[in-house]
Design brief:
Length: 283
């Protein structure tokens, strides 16, 4: 499995690639602009060229872009929905421009709308974006912890949206371990992982789940608590990650850490542990 972390673009796109390289990542994830704002300053052509060059020189990849926090593609409010789809289209366009392999989005919150209506709404929005913006960047829906009215708390909801989008060659799933565990997916046993992978295989197929977010979970199984923590320090624990990282069915995937970054060493420690676990060590 190729391993990486979410890196900051605070010092520019090119610097983000260098940061990932220095950390010893194989792959990396970024936001493409301020994650907490709607307004994005335009990407300069030079910035894009330098980023692509840096990616090529370092050999890092896949490159992942994560959608910012504000867009809600399931929004009940029509104005917010429109704004969200526009914002997502803009960020997807940027992901395509910088040559990202994957673009990851959360399916949003449905509010008082019923589940089916919300799923169709998300699908309609994504279909519109894919029509507007051509490009090879795969559009991935991320599973959620299922807190409150979050859409995508189980894989069957994501599968339903993907089916409605009806662009299998351009879409897929990003599987977040913390969210899944909080949503009730048992990841600490071989049986649990078998069950999960069987569900994926019998629906969209493993090929359409190329990306994992590797986060340990502070909340208990089925708690719906979306709180990421360091690998081995949460409820999934080292045994769960060892099982995931040594599973031959997942060996071709990419795993990105989104664990807390309180000290500069945090990412290094988490990555080192993941790599040890991938060799079947550190039990
Ligand atoms: Zn996410
Ligand atoms: Zn995630």
């Amino acid at each position: 499995m190729r391993i990486g972390v979410h890196v900051s673009i605070g010092k520019g796109l090119r610097q983000a690639v260098q940061t990932a390289k220095h950390l010893g990542c194989d792959a990396f994830q970024i936001f493409i602009g301020n994650p907490r704002g709607w307004k994005k300053k335009p990407l300069a052509d030079q910035e894009v060229v330098e980023f692509r060059q840096a990616v090529q020189e370092t050999g890092l990849g896949p490159v992942v872009v994560h959608l910012s926090y504000l867009p809600n593609p399931a929004a009940e409010d029509e104005a917010l929905y429109e704004k969200s789809i526009l914002g997502m289209a803009e960020e997807y366009q940027r992901a395509v421009m910088i040559g990202a392999d994957y673009f990851v989005v959360h399916p949003g919150k449905r509010g008082r709308q019923d589940q089916e209506k919300a799923l169709l709404k998300v699908a309609r929005g994504v279909r519109e974006i894919l029509k507007q913006v051509e490009g090879p960047t795969l559009f991935l829906l991320e599973n959620q912890a299922g807190a409150g009215t979050e859409v995508g708390g189980n894989l069957s909801q994501l599968v339903r949206i993907l089916k409605e989008i009806d662009h299998p060659e351009r879409t897929g799933i990003c599987f977040d371990t913390c969210h899944a565990f909080a949503a009730g997916y048992e990841l600490r046993t071989k049986e649990g992982i078998d069950c999960l992978l069987k569900e994926v295989e019998s629906t969209v197929g493993l090929k359409r789940m190329p990306l994992l977010h590797l986060n340990d979970a502070l909340g208990a199984l089925g708690s719906h608590l979306d709180r990421h923590t360091h690998i081995g320090q949460g409820q999934i624990g080292t045994e769960g990650f060892r099982l995931l990282l040594t599973d031959p069915r997942l060996s071709g995937l990419t795993g990105i850490l989104e664990t807390p970054q309180q000290t500069p060493d945090d990412d290094l420690k988490n990555m080192a542990l993941l790599r040890q676990l991938a060799c079947g060590e550190a039990r």
